[in-house]
Request: fold
Amino acid sequence: MSDHAALPQLGLPVGWLAEPVASAPERVLVALSGGVDSSVAAALLVEAGHEVVGVWMRLHDAADRVDGGRKSCCTLDAADDARRVADQLKIPFHIQNLEREFAAAVLEPFIGSYLDGETPSPCVGCNTAVKFGALVGKGSALFGCDAVATGHYARRAVSADGASWRLRTAVDSDKDQTYFLHGLSSEAIARARFPLGELTKGEVRDAARARGLATAEKPESQEICFVPDGDYRSLLRSRGWSPKAGEIVDERGDVVGEHQGSAGFTVGQRRGLSVAADTPRYVSAVDPRTNRITIGRRESLERREIDLTGAATPSGELQSDVVLEGRARIRHRGVLAEGRLISRGGGAATLELREPLWAPSPGQTVVLYEGETLAAGGQIAAPVTAPVAAHA
Amino acid sequence: MSPARIFADHAAGSAVRPEVADLLADLYRDGIGNPNGGHAEARRSRAVLDEARASLAAALGVESRQVTFTASASEGLALALNSETRAKEPLLTSATEHRGARALAQRHVAAGGAVHLLPVDERGAWATNSPLVRDVASQGGVALLTLASGELGTIQPRADLIHIWREAGGGALIFDGVQAAAAELRFDEIGATHLVLGSAKVEGPAGIAALVSAPDRRLHPLVPGGGQERGRRGGTEAVPLAAAFAHAYRLMSNERHATQRHLAQLCEAFDAALGNPATHGLIATGASDLGARLPGHRSYAAEWALGDDLVAALDHAGLAISTGSACISGSREPSEALAACGLSDAASRGGIRISFGRTHSVDEARLAAATLAATCARIRSSYTAEVSR
Reply:
């Protein structure tokens, strides 16, 4: 079973319209990362006649520590690339320091999440609180910008009465990034601009080349920007985490091995388990309180019911007993499973699936699509469901 | 962006004035190059270099041999310090020094030396009555101090300090006179051991500066070379740059009083248009006595915005200014100078400076004030301190 799936284009649900193709000229802040996507986004806005202000966000001091060989969006080289593109497009360029906002909304929750045995989604927090949160406020206050644009692959949909907004999946379903944007409120979506939503990655690359943009041939950045070496465990250690050895137990609760620190593991992980077994074993639960990791066979990690916290639609928290039907996914580009979200109020909800999803991990983001629109999202609650062998 | 921009960041460096740019172009076109050689071409270049040195020396009241050309003021300070300090000698510097001087002080610490920070008052002026001055001087220490703060605009009470320093038997006094050059500055009247001056702050080209030293001082080169600059600095002399610097300095010296009067008028118009800074949420920083400020220089701090944010918003509104404390792009570190003046942590991150130039009109000064006022009002109404900081 492939873990990656493209979103089929299912059209807009009743009552929702595609965003207007062209809008009146406005002053737009573009978050330039120094990559090809945001460069093209800025170029398209300029060509559409908008007044564009380019901004590169300084989010953490990894920018000063990492050399240019890395492909992260947050190095000083990336800032230089963003500046060059702004210069090519003849738009103003500013560096905005959002380190404090990033630390509060992304970095600290990321560390806390791992220490709690969860799997964080740092990009979600960054998009919600930083790019379409603090940056929107700064853009408005400092430059009088009405909107903030990024190089995300996403589109927008507006309700027929024009009062509410939802995210809509990108034309390039393989690149669609609505999963990471799910935390945006209707109000935030109204002020967001995604100029790449109608383009494929190949078309964006071609557009960059056609315009001779400095970033046209720049490779993709995939890693978590503030963990440029990919080793989040060393980040945890630098924040005072001292790994302690603990037990690895099987689904019956029998001790089958030892690990060197539970925060180094995430549900669904296979690597790093030094356990002898006839078939592959995966982490099925991480309990930081007992410092114990439970492992099981692949099929034992399948779930048809997933409890959520923070379940909300772009228009706000769900009332209790609201039922939303749609297709859910628990990973970026992960498989889509048909099911329904049943709200119990206060952000609590249960996702009931027709087909099981594999290895839902507490803390991970869940989104539910209604047609092409993102109707709701939330985080997987801990524990997912009581494993066969509870920690009692 | 507004089409009519106002560049009010002359303390960071002005554009090369047209007469100087013409001279530079002529010298390059005329093939003025390496002055070291036994041919007529080299002698021609040497004559231009000698003339530049003599011109600068005359303006400063020294002999030509006391002037060493360097590529930057920072290099000049490093060369002077390299020549005067050994690890055992304590170094006196101030709490409002720019980062270049601070970096040199840190190097002294790394070499095992002691560094003492001369405190400043709330206006950024040296506390010359501090016992530290006499203490460090009596140990044969060396002082590395900036005569006027580019960030705060405060012209330092150098006469008081030099008097106490000399009386206590202090060692070399190394002064950064880059910003102070706009005020009266004659080496023979200052009583310094070394004085550093830069070209870009007097509408000359960047990439050239001068270290002026007392006649009895011997310089220990940072870069050894083929005997250039009397063996004080290796590397072929940048003759056209040196000539352009000297020309710019001479023009500035000749026009100094007229320029100062004009800059005072600009500041008067700016102040009148701005009104009380507090009504815009701004705290005036640096010397309040206009006679103790650099001409054409105004500085403020805001507790409700980062200095970088104000700079960006004003840039967008067509007014080019700076925070005055050049540092890492986008860094959120507070300004050491503002903190040393006793400003709050928030205000120390919210510093800006406005520095007018010779070519501004009174109307531009008024427009700059109006732009500052309007931008402050917009930002303050848009976000609260909690959100932005």
User: Anything to note?
Assistant: Residues 239-274 of chain B form the longest helix (36 residues). The mean pLDDT of chain B is 92. Chain B touches chain A through 20 residues (CB under 8 Å). Chain B has two domains: 64-234, 256-382.
